[in-house]
Model the fold of this input.
Amino acid sequence: MNKRYTIALLASAAMLSSLHAGKASFDCTKADKASEKAVCSNAELGRLDTQLAALYAKAQKSYDPGELPDLKKDQRAWMQERDRCGGDSACLKDRYERRIARLQIGTGAIEVPKPVDYRCDKGYTLTVYFYNDSIVPVTIINLVRDKAHLQKLLYLDPSGSGAKYGTKDLSVWEHHGEATVEKKGETIRCEELKR
Done:
């Protein structure tokens, strides 16, 4: 076989393979953003994109009609957040996994775990749902004092010991039946209520 022909054939196959490697939920030939191009050229990101698209379609069917505008607004905000990653595969993977976990919980794709209740200082009570079966570990916390109620979904952050979940404004660190909540500079210490 002609050497030039073989090289051209291999180059064409590699280019075609990279266009379809990710098997994204969208048409990769129309990808114009760095994030979209990265999803199309990375098989793992492509699979995550397809999984997210399926969960989002499920959410659109399962949510109450009154909740759909918020769902669509959240999805647009997530897409902007994803696009800020540019072509950074690690950033994109993190964004996809976090959005998938949120949709897994919102659509009931995973079972709601048994709540863990805590009694805390400063008059707070804390209820935590540890979702360890989602694509990445997350928790939903309910922090209550008097009539004030805070409910938040938090993602697992690496921790030396115990489990730490958090955002920039709120974190929960759980270790051997004790939890510490950091909320806008306030530290709240909690002990698990045994059933």
